[in-house]
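Two proteins were folded this term; both appear here.
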Amino acid sequence: MNQLIKQQAIPGIIGGLGPLAHIELERHLIAINQGRGACCDQEYPVWFLINATDIPDRTQSIIGEVENCTPWLVKYGKILQTAGADFLVIPCNTSHAFYDQVQPQLNIPWIHWMQSTSIFIKTNYPQYQNIGVLATTGTLKTKLYHHSLTALGLNSIQPALNSEVQNQIMNAIYDPIWGIKATGIQVSAPALEILVNATYWLADQGAELVIAGCTELSVGFNYLTNLPLIWVDPMKIIAEITLDLAWGYSAI
């Protein structure tokens, strides 16, 4: 990395929305930055992180089982803004259901995962039209990926709410014993089996690639090989964008 390059913008990260979510994002930031040539402490960007584990569960908030997440996201966004962050990254797909309520209350931009991921797919996989989505029920219910994909002329294929496939995906994420939120980096065999089966189901529905549309699924898919579909990781996409913004390769 050219030591003459100076950091242009400071990322602010709201973590804790899934125990591993921000850890995985930071791992990507470090790995990608190292791959770009960084070889000492000073060649990695400064970023601010809040481990905001007290934010209510996003899916439960969307379906009305717990309080609205908006005030919490605004609160922590403003703390990062005051600390000096120039833009906001939230490694939780479902949190983007509150984007339209949160962003107007902040003076720094919140980088949108679904829009960024959809643009990445359109740019890097122009041969694919039918995009599979695996995500929480909250993300599917609010059609976050559906809206972003269809805005670019792409078709979204996802399990129906309350279907067996979707219920199993939620188990893979949330089961208190073997779900990915519960087991962390030691992803369980039952969770991985569900991801494999769900990917085959998407392929049977005509999907040409699959989006890991939940940060826990990003963790799980990293353990899998020989899937019937290419999988796209929004976590890695956002890490690339975060570094580009931090170093000034892209404008905020």
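Next, the second protein.
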Amino acid sequence: MLVIPAIDLKNGEAVRLYKGDYQKKTVYSTAPEQLAKQFEEMGVSYLHLVDLDGAKDAQAVNKKIIKKIRETVSMSIELGGGIRNMETVSYYLDTIGIDRVILGTAALDHPDFLKEALFRYGADKIIVGVDIKNGFVSTSGWLKTSAMSYLTFIDQLAEIGIKTIICTDISKDGTLQGPNFELYKTIASHSSLSLVVSGGIKDDKDIYQVAKQGYYGCIVGKAYYEGHIDLREVIRNVSQENNTLS
């Protein structure tokens, strides 16, 4: 299982929101590229980047710092937030070398765009964020809730050819209350898509529990920033477990 630390970008800074509320943010670094470098030195192999301003404004906003992060580290990077057209997809994947992009709002509102991106780049480069609020898919930086059931949406993604989804329970995100394991169990029993767990991780025990379920990955944010996780140790332990299982 991949342990994937998150850097959420707002105004060029690394921040965390509480339940997606843009008015409830904590700034953790004014130099996100150095934070990314620290993650790489801890043994992180995949980094999760989110352009929060981009998600809210429906366009790529933090391009400059994202490019700087990409130039600073060699580890793999996945990026979401404000990616609403092929020009932006191409810029991130082809021009600056992001490893895979995460489509969210655009994947729901414009399935033809999702299909085009998937056709052009493949399922290894195009993944989808399924952000869930009260059983429905949330969009526009979590500011809007659609009428689409999350399971119906996941079915549609599988039919289109998506292989990997990042599922976030918005009610848990940034709360340090633990993940909604029942939600992820429901998703895993319903779909064979590779599942990345996101939202609510509070300590290393939560990460090990996610690993035991056999999920593809786990995103870690506030728990690390608030000092509840020794990321280097967790990565080492999960890696050893992966080697035992393989």
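The chain has eleven helices and twelve strands. The longest strand covers residues 2-10. These notes refer to the second protein only.
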